[in-house]
Sequence to fold (105 residues):
Amino acid sequence: MKYLLFFCSAAGLLLSGCASVEQSAPPVAQLHAAVPSVCEEGRRIYTTTCTKCHSVEAIRPHSMAEWRGKIMPAMTKKSKITPQQEAAVLAYVEAVISTPAPGKS
Fold:
């Protein structure tokens, strides 16, 4: 019984984590992306490289000015991503911010 409860709890956490990533870092197909391939790369970096140090953070609570002026410079330095990778992440972030959140058109 203990193992069943543990398994169900673990499965619930995993499933809720997946929903959180999709909400915090929406798939490019849901966005108004100027260059989808660059945005796909930016999302991949955001959801893999950035999460080596912290969980996937929601993008929309911050302005594009905050991403460009404060967040990305600090994170680029810490994560040691290349300027091209930084540009891809910023392209993805801009696509997320410029696309209305689901249910908020």
Q: What stands out?
A: The radius of gyration is 16 Å. The chain has four helices and no strands.
